[in-house]
């Protein structure tokens, strides 16, 4: 029988097949230097993403019975997005247990938010395969869905433009305006740079492949700079 990984204790899961957890923690780069391991975590990540979305949807459906579908969709997106999963990964110290190539490790892979978030999804997939939906649901509720109150209080389920406009109007009774500062590249592949302004004073700046995406980046930049 495969030895139970020590990390399983921190997860609160006694795996029937401990190899699943090892796979969940294995980044594709590790396979280049370790021929004894044949599978990386991307398939488990794919499965875990689907389980996470189902559990989150059911949780919100029962938790917020009067909330319209559109708002529930936005809240769910905030719960399952990479930065929220990264928070869960850091609390669980997932980075210390990742199996990475030497190069990926030296390049900061253990603190890479994208890799950490993907590993959490893979862990969810491993728990689901090994234990079924109930333990996977318990794990998600304990380690991912606990940020719901924070997301609601900070209106973090809204996109950057909506949040910036709401806070600016509430705090200062002003409406942000956006201005294209630059556009480079051919017509079919332009990159736009946009500034966001309060009464003529620039508060943030962002770039994107469309004016809309650049405006979102500018709003997010302003939110960060203003500490909102």
From TrEMBL:
Digests double-stranded RNA. Involved in the processing of primary rRNA transcript to yield the immediate precursors to the large and small rRNAs (23S and 16S). Processes some mRNAs, and tRNAs when they are encoded in the rRNA operon. Processes pre-crRNA and tracrRNA of type II CRISPR loci if present in the organism. Its EC number is 3.1.26.3. One of its GO terms (cellular component) is cytoplasm. HAMAP family: RNase_III (MF_00104). Residues 202-211 have a biased composition (Low complexity). It is found in: Cytoplasm. This is Ribonuclease 3. The active site is at residues 49, 121. Keywords: Cytoplasm, Endonuclease, Hydrolase, Magnesium, Metal-binding, mRNA processing, Nuclease, RNA-binding, rRNA processing, rRNA-binding, tRNA processing. Its cofactor is Mg(2+). It comes from the Bacteria. InterPro entries: dsRBD_dom, RNase_III, RNase_III_dom, RNase_III_sf. GO terms for molecular function: double-stranded RNA binding; identical protein binding; metal ion binding; ribonuclease III activity; rRNA binding. Residues 7-132 form the RNase III domain. GO terms for biological process: mRNA processing; regulation of gene expression; rRNA processing; tRNA processing. SMART domains: DSRM, RIBOc. The lineage of its organism: Bacteria, Candidatus Wirthbacteria. Homodimer. Residues 202-228 are annotated as: Disordered. It is an enzyme of class 3 (hydrolase). It catalyses: Endonucleolytic cleavage to 5'-phosphomonoester. Pfam families: dsrm, Ribonucleas_3_3. Belongs to the ribonuclease III family. Mg(2+) binds at residues 45, 118, 121.
């Amino acid at each position: 029988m495969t030895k139970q990984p020590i990390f399983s204790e921190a997860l609160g899961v006694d795996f029937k097949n401990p190899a699943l957890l090892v796979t969940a923690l294995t980044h594709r780069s590790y396979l280049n230097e370790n021929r004894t391991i044949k599978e990386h975590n991307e398939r488990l990540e794919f499965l875990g993403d689907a389980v996470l979305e189902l559990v989150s949807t059911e949780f919100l459906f029962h938790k917020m019975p009067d909330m319209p579908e559109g708002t529930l969709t936005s809240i769910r997106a905030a719960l399952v997005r990479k930065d929220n999963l990264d928070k869960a990964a850091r609390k669980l110290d997932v980075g210390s247990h990742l199996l990475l190539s030497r190069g990926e490790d030296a390049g900061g892979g253990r603190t890479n938010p994208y890799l950490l978030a993907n590993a959490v999804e893979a862990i969810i997939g491993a728990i689901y395969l090994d234990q079924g939906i109930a333990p996977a649901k318990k794990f998600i509720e304990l380690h991912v869905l606990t940020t719901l109150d924070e997301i609601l209080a900070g209106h973090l389920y809204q996109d950057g433009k909506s949040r910036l406009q709401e806070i600016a109007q509430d705090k200062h009774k002003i409406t942000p305006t956006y201005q294209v500062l630059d556009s480079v590249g051919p017509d079919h592949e332009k990159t736009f740079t946009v500034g966001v302004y309060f009464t003529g004073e620039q508060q943030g700046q962002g770039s994107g492949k469309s004016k809309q995406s650049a405006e979102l980046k500018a709003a997010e930049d302003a939110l960060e700079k203003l500490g909102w």
